[in-house]
Amino acid sequence: MPLAKYAAISLPESTHASGWLREHMQSDHSKLTSLELPQFQSGTLDSLIEGSEELGKIDSQLAGSVAKIVDIFTNVLETSSFQRTVQNRPATDYVETFKWNTSKFRLDKPIPELVKLITNEAFSLDADVRAAYQTYQSARSDFAAADRKRNGDLSIRSLHDIVHPDQFVLNSEHLKTVLVAVPKNLDKEFRNSYETLVQYVVPRSAELISSDSEYNLYAVTLFKKYEPDFVAAARDKKWHPRTDFEYSEDTLNNMRKEFDLTQQNESKSKNDLVRLARTAYSDIFADWCHIKAMRVYVESVLRYGLPPSFDYYLIGFHGSSLEKNFNAAKKQLVEKFGYLGGEASSKNTNLHEYASLVETDYEPFVFFDIEIV
Ligand SMILES: *[C@@H]1O[C@H](CO)[C@@H](O)[C@H](O)[C@H]1NC(C)=O
Ligand SMILES: *[C@@H]1O[C@H](CO)[C@@H](O)[C@H](O)[C@H]1NC(C)=O
């Protein structure tokens, strides 16, 4: 469920709708505000129709970008209840007091150029966030691997900090000590059979080195030559020979370094990601609202014609029944202003065709929703 949902609507001035709207759309569960949109450069009807389709596409792409950032935050911060902040205020405030940013998106530029400016910014931020997310994910999995090595069970963890040199036959020409992690339920079978698993296992050489909740770790000494056979036979018995292990002080030190480095890297890439995602959320959300604003304007011109003489409104819904309240309000609006649909489409066949082309739920007047997720 979204955190808030808005209906942005535009009605011809001639409907004198504000009184009715105040009476019916302002209540305990809905908040009516007027939406201030600037005067845009208006193009030809054809370019507006084209622009309208383009805007529709970008609108849903940016909604996707914003939702993706919310996903990333939710995943990284492990909660979905973080502040949605746009230009230093709550996203709801930003929407409810929306003003076109004229210093950033100058109104002497034609609509297609504004669309390009806004989308370029939003798409490039979107790409940056996705890249930072990938970096963070691989840093996280590197750290998880280092963490498994250090803190995993005895069948996978690094053993360098567990074993001692005196538990090994070291520097012998013929003998070798191997380590085997034996599941606890197979312990008895191990003790009864390891000596005869292959030839030339040193009798009574098994030494219990360590235990965790799943495994007992044994050191077994045998003739070097028979190590491969022993390992294969041990695997058949579902023991876990730790052939990856060679006793070495260097490896022990490297492992400690690796753990610390990957941990630092993970937390750095997480900070970078969160910082970038905050900025990107704010900017992409603002960009998205600018695209919505242009949609409302373009659609109004297409429906109601020029010169622009329409009023824009925003109706906001919050709280647990917001979907229900939103739908009920929409139904009421359609009942009240549905007649506008007939008028507009009979006035303009071009538009009529366009309507049947683009949308299945084509409202009889200009109506867009905005969701804050
Ligand atoms: C307009 O955009 C500029 C540049 O991004 C930004 O610094 C400024 O805060 C924005 N103004 C408003 C009112 O959002
Ligand atoms: C941090 O992790 C990323 C992603 O795995 C990797 O590309 C980068 O080389 C790592 N940096 C350091 C200093 O380990």
Write a concise keyword list for the protein shown above.
Vac_ATP_synth_c_sf, Alpha-Beta Plaits, 16% strand, binds 2-acetamido-2-deoxy-beta-D-glucopyranose, alpha+beta, 4-stranded antiparallel sheet, ATPase_V1-cplx_csu, single chain, subunit c (vma5p) of the yeast v-atpase, domain 2, ion transport
For the largest beta-sheet, the strand count, sense and barrel status come to: 4 strands, antiparallel
Q: Could you say what the CATH architecture of the largest domain is? A: Up-down Bundle
Order of helices and strands: EHEHEEHHEHEEHEHEHHHE
Q: Compute the separation of the termini in Å.
A: 7 Å
The tally of strands reads: 10
Describe it for me?
The structure is a single chain. The chain is of the alpha+beta class and 373 residues long. The chain folds into two domains: 4-141 and 265-360, subunit c (vma5p) of the yeast v-atpase, domain 2 (Up-down Bundle), CATH 1.20.1460.10; 165-246, 2-Layer Sandwich (Alpha-Beta Plaits). 53% of the residues lie in helices and 16% in strands. It is built from ten helices and ten strands. The structure holds 2-acetamido-2-deoxy-beta-D-glucopyranose (2 copies). One 2-acetamido-2-deoxy-beta-D-glucopyranose (NAG) binds at residues 135, 138-139, 142, 261, 265. One of its GO terms (cellular component) is vacuolar proton-transporting V-type ATPase, V1 domain.
Topology at a glance:
Blueprint: E1 4-12, H1 18-25, E2 30-34, H2 45-77, E3 85-86, E4 89-90, H3 91-96, H4 111-151, E5 175-183, H5 187-193, E6 207-211, E7 215-223, H6 227-236, E8 240-241, H7 249-304, E9 310-318, H8 322-337, H9 339-347, H10 349-358, E10 366-372
Helix pairs in contact: 2-4, 2-7, 4-7, 9-10
The structure holds 2-acetamido-2-deoxy-beta-D-glucopyranose (NAG) (2 copies).
